[in-house]
Amino acid sequence: KNQVEQSPQSLIILEGKNCTLQCNYTVSPFSNLRWYKQDTGRGPVSLTIMTFSENTKSNGRYTATLDADTKQSSLHITASQLSDSASYICVVSDGNSGYSTLTFGKGTMLLVSP
Amino acid sequence: NAGVTQTPKFRILKIGQSMTLQCTQDMNHNYMYWYRQDPGMGLKLIYYSVGAGITDKGEVPNGYNVSRSTTEDFPLRLELAAPSQTSVYFCASSYGTASNQPQHFGDGTRLSIL
Q1: Sheet hosting strand A3-7, strand order edge to edge
Q2: How far is B81 from chain A (nearest CA, A)?
Q3: Which residues of A touch B90 (CB under 8 A)?
Q4: Would A109 disulfide with which of A10, A47, A64, A80, CB 3.0-4.6 Å?
């Protein structure tokens, strides 16, 4: 069964500090991995999408890494801001079917404190 | 740009009642999806559509129905509401298959069945 595990479950950091969120997956075959940001009461918003050949992808202060061999990904947030407080969801696509099956992680809840 | 619009934002239903959750997108996307998000869980796919007139079941379709008469609209129907259907429902769309295209999400419908 395809699974996506995220850690930590929640995290509190001070404004201006950096943090790294982790994602481990057991999805086969692997097509791509994406990170979404979900603000409270809102829908998820795409941050990055990476295929197996991409090791790193950045979007502003967000940098995602992918190790397809160990089936791990991380999302690094630099110089955190209060607006970074949100749930960050890791999603893996298996590319099996025509629409592609997506497996969603439960998310890491990040709180940036002033 | 409106993107993906969901209505209503909140709704309380009694057991056995029926309702339709509305979803419309203005990006001319062929692919549309319905997910449910339960507390502390990853999003689960209910139904999806690859174009007008074409729909298919996702992971958790029981108790729901969909239709896709136009490219823009993808309503989700609950026929006999049950407490287990209390959840947050998200509609999403993508330009192509979710294999390598980001999904654009609406802001959700929060549904309580009492």
Answers
A1: A3-7, A19-26, A72-77, A62-67, A56-59
A2: 23
A3: 43-44
A4: A10
Residue B91 near residue B5, CB atoms below 8 Å: no
Q: Burial code of A52-90, b = ≥16 C-beta within 10 A, e = fewer?
A: eeeeebeeeebbbbbebeebebbbebeebeeebbbbbbb
Segment holding B51, helix H or strand E:
strand B44-51
Side-chain-side CA neighbours of B76 within 13 Å: the count stands at 33
State the nearest Cα–Cα gap between A111 and chain B, in angstroms.
Answer: 16
For A14-70, how does the pLDDT look when each residue is reduced to its tens digit (9 = 90+)?
Answer: 999 999 999 999 988 888 999 999 999 999 999 999 988 889 999 999 999 999 999
- Strand pairing of A10-14 and A108-113? parallel
